[in-house]
Amino acid sequence: MNALSKIMKSRTLKEAVLNIPDSALDTAGIIAAIMFVLGPIIQFLHKYLSPVFPSLMRDINPIVLLLGGLTLLLYAVKKIIVQNENPWQILKRHYAIALAGVFAILMVVTTLLNSPSEITIFGEAYRKEGLVGFLSYIVYFLLMAINRNERQKKMLLCVFLSVTAFASCLQVYIHYACNIIIIEFTLHNSNHYGYLLATAIIVFAMQIIISRKILFKVLCGFGMFVTVLTLLINNTLGAELAVCITCIAICIIYSLSKGGFKVLTLIPLAILAVTVAFGALTSGHIRTSLLSNNGQLVNDLGALSGLEAEETTGIQRLELWQYGGFYVAEKPFIGHGSDATGDRLVIDVGSDRCHNEYINYAVCFGIPAAVFYVAAVFAIYLRGLKHRKELTDSNLIGLCAALAYLISALVGNTMYYTAPYLFIMLGMGYFKKSENKA
Fold first, then answer.
1. What is the largest distance, in Å, between two alpha-carbon atoms of the chain?
2. Whole-angstrom Cα distance, residue 209 to residue 155?
3. Which of 35, 55, 126, 402 has its CA 20 to 30 A from that of 7?
4. Which of 178-187, 240-249, 326-335, 368-377 has the weakest average pLDDT?
5. What is the mean pLDDT of the chain?
6. How far is C-alpha 271 from the chain's CA centre?
7. What b/e string do you get for 180-191 counting C-beta neighbours within 10 Å, with b at 16 or more?
8. Mind listing the pLDDT tens digit for each residue in 12-45?
């Protein structure tokens, strides 16, 4: 109330902006992120208990774009006034944020150059993305990138893990007690749910390594066990590979940040191995899925090597990528607009997206936009590597969790209810010093 009183008593707009506490701006961003990660539970209540609960997952991103954008504007104005520094110098220091900003600008410009329609601006009914959705993802990233409150970020991670643990325990119980297979929870598609599960598994894994409280380590170990089991039931090969690769990468990333190899980093790998063995021994569905996925992986690798291969999901992905490349070649600099090629791709291959987020950015917004997106992500990790000895717990968790998502993105699509997980984790992983030393 004291802060609000100061703002209300301000004599000028400049004074009012200066009286806004940084904690208020941090809190606004964390509330947006928490409301998003609560989405699956709210959707569960809406779908199975009562429609009185709002279907928040479909509506929160435009709200975040509007209110989060205002929060970021206030933050930028306040920092420039307080520091009395050239904003270009600030962006030069925070080059990853500058690259993300260019990516956002290119999305706007290319959309306008492509005769914008309702679909390219607001998205089609299923994906509900469009320019508004993609810009909201950048806002999620920036809101988390400016937040320096470790306690708030720990709270966000606990909410995220609680939501995932609830969903996983429910699905594992239904699978083993009722012999019913649920592969998508409240999402539209098992692949989308795989994104969420893979991200959560890595957060669980990092908490096992980082947490200083034994009870919390044990709870996270159980959470990881149940969530990996759910991912095996879910049967999304891309997400499963992402988890395996990232669990190995954790050993390297964490050891680099701490100046030497840490035996603790092997615990998530051990839990992963035990869970896979348990699932294969206790569930016919999981056993069949593992055998099928191994066969598919061998088949797809053979196809990549030029050998004759059967038609599989992986082979279909290769065809989608090929057609995505054709569409990029048609408009390499400005793309076609968000989801503007969906109908064509359905006719050509049978799917409305090319199942590779990086190619899809090029299809929608052109090669330059896709390059700036990849460059921004690379810059975040490069900054983390440069300051690896100074990374906070939330930085490490964010970088590792985002890595799992980025690997999954090689064979998947963005969705309004999954892509924000990536951008929230990238923002959390973004390293920040004091403004004078950043």
1. 76
2. 18
3. 35
4. 178-187
5. 89
6. 23
7. eebbbbbbebbb
8. 777 777 778 888 889 999 999 999 999 888 888 8
Domain residue extents for the chain: 1-84, 147-295+387-438
> Which has more pLDDT, 78 or 155?
155
Q: Under a CB-based contact definition with an 8 Å cutoff, are residues 340 and 119 in contact?
A: yes
Q: At what angle do helices 419-429 and 367-386 cross, to 10 degrees?
A: 40
Indicate whether 53 pLDDT > 60: no
Q: CA–CA distance from 165 to each of 124, 169, 264, 411 (Å)?
A: 31, 6, 22, 25
Query: What distance in Å separates the CA atoms of residue 423 and residue 83, rounded to the nearest whole number?
Result: 27
pLDDT of residue 438: 40
Rounded (5°) CA angle 411-135-97:
90
How far is the C-alpha of 399 from the C-alpha of 431, rounded, in Å?
10
Position with higher pLDDT, 58 vs 367: 367
Tell me which amino acid residue 256 is.
L
* Closest CA relative to residue 356, chosen from 228, 191, 113: 191
Neighbours of 354 (CB within 10 A): 26
- Collapsing DSSP to helix, strand or coil, 418 comes out as coil
C-alpha closest to that of 170 among 41, 277, 51, 56: 41
Among residues 229, 143, 252, the alpha carbon closest in space to that of 183 is found at 229
Rounded to whole angstroms, the Cα distance separating 421 from 401 reads 9
Q: What single DSSP character describes residue 119?
A: H
**Six-digit token pair at 312?**
């599989």
Considering just the CA atoms, what is the radius of gyration of the chain in Å? 22
With tokens 């199975």, the residue in question is 48
Question: CA 184 → CA 173, 293, 313, 331, 336, distances in Å?
Answer: 15, 18, 18, 35, 30
Amino acid at 65: L
DSSP at 338: T
Q: What percent of the chain has pLDDT over 90?
A: 65
> 313-355: per-residue pLDDT in tens?
555 778 889 999 999 999 999 999 998 888 899 998 888 888 9
The token pair that represents 426 in the structure block: 């990238």
Query: What is the spatial distance between Cα 290 and Cα 296, in angstroms, rounded to a whole number?
Result: 10
pLDDT in the model for residue 436 = 37
Cα(82)–Cα(383) distance, rounded to whole angstroms? 25
- Which amino acid is located at 158 in the chain? C
Assess whether pLDDT exceeds 80 at residue 114. yes
d(CA 242, CA 228): 12
